[in-house]
Amino acid sequence: MMSTQDTPGLLTLLVDAGVHFVVIGGVAAIAHGASTFTRDLDVLVAFDTDTISRLLDALKEHDPRAAIDPARRPIPKDIAAFEGFRNLYLTTDLGRLDLIGETPIGDFAHLVERAVPMTLAGVAVRVIALDDLIAIKRAVGRPKDILVATELEAIRELLQDGES
Description:
The chain is an alpha+beta fold.
């Protein structure tokens, strides 16, 4: 089971498996310039048969287990078991991976079009747009999310001032 978070390893694994995803959460905030800390990788995905199949295949060698299950049981190997899922929280030997199917402001299909191409730790990925990330952080409303949203808003203002 995992001892450290290998976000570059997880990103590479997903890209190499052909999984279509958008980086969201703390890693996206950091990519946009925030000074936050995160212990996981949150990615927005479509919970469809193709995506789940690619994910299961990519993760099978990395001991994927249910992160919110106290027993940390292995995840099912049958794609049908994931029908109707909106989120899936995993621990792997590469670290924590949260697969998010929908956010307070929309799902993968809604947010992927505005996502920004970036290179994170040498891996070319799509990262949620700054305005969308701020909107999610505000909608979630936890104190830590509000702090990050406030920092991201300041970053956005600096970027806008730099364009003027």
